[in-house]
Design brief:
- It is a single chain.
- The protein is an alpha/beta fold and 183 residues long.
- It has one domain: 3-Layer(aba) Sandwich (Rossmann fold), CATH 3.40.50.1450.
- It has 5 helices and 6 strands; from the N terminus they run βαβαβαβββαα.
- It has a 6-stranded mixed beta sheet.
- α1 packs across α5 and α2 crosses α5.
- It is globular.
- The termini are far apart.
- InterPro entries: Pept_HybD-like_dom_sf, YyaC.
- Keywords: Hydrolase, Protease.
- GO terms for molecular function: peptidase activity.
- This is Spore protease YyaC.
- It comes from Laceyella putida.
Amino acid sequence: MEKWHIPIDQSNAVPLLIHHLTQLLLPHPPAHPLVCLCIGTDRSTGDTLGPLVGTMLTEARSPGIRVFGTLAQPVHAYRLEKVMNEMKRLTPTPTIIAIDASLGNQKDVGTIEIGAGTLAPGQGLGKKLPPIGDIYLKGIVNATGSMPSYILQTTRFHLTYEMATIISEAIKAVAIKRATPLP
């Protein structure tokens, strides 16, 4: 499966993310609505990535995107299956972009991983949740350690916020391109 790591301090992070997201969406017909499943909680600075992206996309009223997961209504482990069922009921043939925070190697902290395929939410915390998505975006917000919940709670919010801004800008740009009919 294809995947890329994009450091957020790279000046062309948004254009690179737009490029890769556009390429990953090619096999998915524009007739299939884009659904952004923004996973995480507002109770842990490192795990707010998904809900922040969802809030930014919702506030921007991004065309052609249905958003599940915001700061006001987060999609966390306890709500994930319920939201997945609601998504299927409301959008029968979606293209799902799953967005979540992740812990990783120290060298990868501050990068966004984008790829084709499903996301396994909660994996870093030892949770067994259903895999989801056609495309995934993972923000590596901190290094893996012996107490992952504590690490996520003490992650710098600035890093999470910067990642959310970059991800939401890229998704908005791709959604606008997808929603604009060709001449």
